[in-house]
Records
---
Amino acid sequence: MFEQFLGKLRKYEIRMRKAVTSERHGNFHSVFKGSGLEFDDLRLYQYGDDVRAIDWNTSAKGHGTFVKIFKEDKEQTAFFMLDVSASQQVGEVRKLKIDIAKEICGVLTLSAIQEATRVGLLCFSDKNERYIRPSDGMKHGYGVISELYKLVPESTRTNIADAILVTLNLLKRRTLVFLISDFIDENYYHNLKALCRKHDVIVIHLYDSRETDLPSLGIIPLYDAEKQATVWVNTSSKQYREDMASRFNKRSIDLKRLCHQNRADYLAINTQEDYVPALIHLFKVRHYTKSSVS
């Protein structure tokens, strides 16, 4: 079974690589370039500079608008933060949010390792479920993917804020951080802002169609995996379905706004759809923005 999982990841990684390197979109290495950029100095803003490089703290002092200059660090690192809490156990068979999360993490690991980028992993619930120290090489990459494949979480609950604190303590140098979750949690915005200030962050927001468009099935039991309790809800109620969709939309809009304000990339992925085109689009966008910063 692991061989099938790995084979699927390889197929998707090749598909992504071909798409990103075609149509003069630049080489694949540029995707991970952000992880190898280290702050070097400041200079005055010039027309055409990426606004995401502006140092707002320095600029606020009133002596002009300044942008950060980065130098390339040969020891590049990509760090994956993967939410493995029970709310990820939603979806169709073999298309649960956790299944897709593991696949995305695995595909990106293959891409990073092939570009000589060091890879690290933190799987979290409301505790640290698995930590793998960043390293490079294909053997290490396969080890990360193997751990992803076989991981069975001990806890059902989520604590994104604590996981971010752990990551901030672990990563001493500027790193490309992928935060992959359904973000069904609260009180983590302050820590996420801190993560974005110190690192180059890509937020991947996973969701299932039923979180936005619950079918009308009458009164049915819904099991809350994190609270380990069953509640009966009337899915025929228009008000209930609208409230559910509204909560999801608010969570998505707020998270996307926070990412934009803190110069992090945001990507929403419906786990019932092919996620490879979304990753390809993200990588093409990052190629252009990172090229303009450097």
---
Amino acid sequence: MTDLPPDLPRLRTLETWLALALDEVRQAIALAERREAERRRGLEVRPALPEWLLEQGLNRDSAPVQVHVGGCWNAGKRVRGIGRDGALRVLTDGVKACGACRPDSELGLLD
């Protein structure tokens, strides 16, 4: 058997403590369920990655540095999404294609 106390006052105290502990566990479960629902919702409403990325130079006035395929691991922090036509235009204007994701091949410029 269990090691429960034999007298009623201590059993009632234990019952109260267990009820409070169970309430805390249920609150923690509800919080975890809300966080998981928020995480799933965030994934559902996340905007799609742009198909092509244009990596900017060090300041606002400098020329673009590279073109990347959207989601490229090698893209720097100073990127903005551009469309297919924009990617083709800047590549044909002489902006370098990323050597990792090869947007020039993806766009059919090297075929």
---
Amino acid sequence: MCLFSFNTYAQNLVIEGLLLEENSDYKIPYATLIDITTNKYGTTSQENGSFKLVLPNGSENNKIFISSLGYKDTTIVVSDILKTQRIYLSQENYELPDVVITSTKSKEVEIGDSQSSVAMLDNKTRGYQSSAGFSWGAYFKTKNKENGAHLKSFNIYIGNTGFPEAPLMLRLLEFTGEFEFSRSQPRSLFKDIHQKPIIIEASKSGWFQLDLSDLNIRIPENGIYCLLTPLDKGGKFSYETPQGLKYGASIGIYSDPKPGKNIYPVFQDKDRLSVVKRSHAPSPAVSIIINPSN
């Protein structure tokens, strides 16, 4: 049975396939697949590793960038996908820091403010929207005393624009390169600090708290990056905006800029990420609660 197929109709090229772990039959869920030739089309793999990506006719030479937790980033040409019928990803070997558990009790610190209001316009949440498979999020700039702190929770304001109930995947990253605002950095310089998918499923618009206290995640030196990706569940979560077709849930922005003073927007550009100054884009309405190590 052929696990990949493609059909042309209505001037579309439809690619259906399966992601597998190299030298294994394990089917890889929640991977992101982005057409980086146009930077317009993307999707995510389902729980069973299957995916469906719709491109315009004539896209056989386009490049698809694939990223998944625990696996090396991979770029493959559409025509090669059609020939190989399956895509195999090789595992990424991470050197994760040792988890240090202490009995010292410290006062919790919140970066951001999960009690703050968000910006609204005509009863609709103002904020950030994305397309299926594309990622965006926030960089939390931490102080030296907060580095190594234990991450207790991640808080996010899910907007009423789009579909609040649509699932989002959260990836927690550290940056290993030389930091510079607004400079587009290769995804290879961002390392996952937790190796299992974290799925956010809110039932309605508003502040949503994700308890991460049992994961023993420590804040890396120079801060933490929180990347959010709408999981592709078919056309049910698509909606039109003046900026084009969007997908899934949206993230609000703070109505008062003060709570977001140490939170900076992160945007995906093809197979790269960049951190934007708050003077160029408002801070997303997210926050983290941490327990400093001392």
